[in-house]
């Protein structure tokens, strides 16, 4: 650009907020919704930032949405560092000894997010009412690289990335049926009693993790009559009393309408991992929440292992 340097457009730091949301959602409309503004405001602020920097930050297409250019990728690294530094500074200035505040988005597997994380967070807010949450209990992996969440709980440990990660807990899944099912179709005392039974399971080609492929290992060649990508849908189907399902104990053991079968023979053990970006781990609200969730998991080990039927909260 030519002319007096003093008259050249300079980046508006606030425009970086709009840039970050578009980079994370890849849609102006989604970014606008998260920011609480209209989509024209987001478009205008992103264009202003591109003009001030003299470079294109997004490649725009109808199918792919707003994809970062190489220059946009480079800016994203610095913008996220600035965002985290600002959050840390606000915590320090606000006074950590007084009230923790802020926003946290948590991504989790569907059942654990619904039946464990959500009630635990509701109780957490009694102690820290100035912290608000978005909870994403979804039947897929949540992308921290796209900042879909600040903190994630999943059934596979991330293999790469700038993350802090630790095992949250082990949990068990067992075979369940309703008393009505057993009355209609006969009790299940041994593996031989599973012959010819109807089962509920996942849609094989849409299963987001191999950790969920356990039914075929336990009952090879079984007759699966209902499949769903949602374990909560499988749970609801099992409650109808027409088929058997392997379900997480932390969900099914809390429901007296379901009875575990072959408890010493059909036991599937899996693990939950908790992780977040390295720079976010230093935030006080993330640290306190991380420890709270670990404590809640430890306190509820009996439920997670199928040896109790009630969630224990503070």
UniProtKB/TrEMBL annotation:
<keyword id="KW-0805">Transcription regulation</keyword>
<dbReference type="InterPro" id="IPR005119">
    <property type="entry name" value="LysR_subst-bd"/>
</dbReference>
<dbReference type="Pfam" id="PF03466">
    <property type="entry name" value="LysR_substrate"/>
</dbReference>
<protein>
    <submittedName>
        <fullName>LysR family transcriptional regulator</fullName>
    </submittedName>
</protein>
<dbReference type="InterPro" id="IPR000847">
    <property type="entry name" value="LysR_HTH_N"/>
</dbReference>
<dbReference type="GO" id="GO:0003700">
    <property type="term" value="F:DNA-binding transcription factor activity"/>
</dbReference>
<feature type="domain" description="HTH lysR-type">
    <location>
        <begin position="11"/>
        <end position="69"/>
    </location>
</feature>
<dbReference type="GO" id="GO:0006351">
    <property type="term" value="P:DNA-templated transcription"/>
</dbReference>
<dbReference type="Pfam" id="PF00126">
    <property type="entry name" value="HTH_1"/>
</dbReference>
<keyword id="KW-0238">DNA-binding</keyword>
<dbReference type="GO" id="GO:0043565">
    <property type="term" value="F:sequence-specific DNA binding"/>
</dbReference>
<dbReference type="InterPro" id="IPR036388">
    <property type="entry name" value="WH-like_DNA-bd_sf"/>
</dbReference>
<dbReference type="InterPro" id="IPR058163">
    <property type="entry name" value="LysR-type_TF_proteobact-type"/>
</dbReference>
<keyword id="KW-0804">Transcription</keyword>
<dbReference type="InterPro" id="IPR036390">
    <property type="entry name" value="WH_DNA-bd_sf"/>
</dbReference>
<comment type="similarity">
    <text>Belongs to the LysR transcriptional regulatory family.</text>
</comment>
């Amino acid at each position: 650009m030519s002319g007096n340097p003093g008259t050249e457009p300079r980046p508006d730091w606030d425009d970086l907020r709009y840039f970050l949301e578009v980079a994370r959602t890849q849609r102006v409309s989604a970014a606008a919704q998260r920011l609480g503004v209209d989509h024209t405001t987001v478009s205008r602020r992103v264009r202003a930032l591109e003009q001030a920097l003299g470079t294109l930050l997004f490649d725009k297409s109808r199918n792919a949405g707003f994809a970062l250019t190489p220059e946009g990728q480079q800016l994203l690294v610095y913008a996220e560092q600035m965002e985290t530094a600002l959050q840390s500074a606000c915590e320090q200035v606000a006074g950590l000894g007084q009230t923790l505040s802020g926003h946290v988005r948590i991504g989790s597997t569907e059942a654990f997010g619904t039946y464990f994380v959500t009630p635990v967070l509701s109780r957490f807010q009694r102690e820290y009412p100035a912290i608000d949450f978005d909870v994403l209990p979804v039947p897929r992996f949540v992308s921290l690289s796209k900042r879909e969440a600040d903190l994630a709980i999943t059934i596979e440990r991330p293999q790469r990335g700038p993350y802090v990660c630790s095992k949250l807990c082990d949990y068990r899944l067992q075979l369940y049926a309703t008393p009505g099912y057993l009355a209609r179709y006969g009790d299940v005392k041994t593996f031989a009693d599973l012959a010819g039974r109807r089962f509920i399971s996942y849609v094989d080609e849409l299963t987001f993790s191999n950790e969920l492929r356990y039914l075929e290992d336990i009952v090879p060649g079984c007759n699966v009559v209902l499949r769903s990508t949602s374990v909560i849908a499988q749970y609801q189907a099992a409650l109808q009393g027409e088929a058997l399902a392997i379900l997480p104990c932390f969900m099914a053991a809390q429901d007296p309408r379901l009875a575990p079968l072959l408890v010493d023979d059909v036991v599937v053990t899996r693990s939950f991992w908790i992780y977040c970006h390295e720079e976010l781990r230093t935030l006080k609200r993330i640290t306190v929440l991380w420890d709270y969730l670990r404590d809640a998991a430890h306190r509820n080990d009996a439920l997670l292992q199928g040896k109790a039927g009630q969630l224990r909260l503070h």
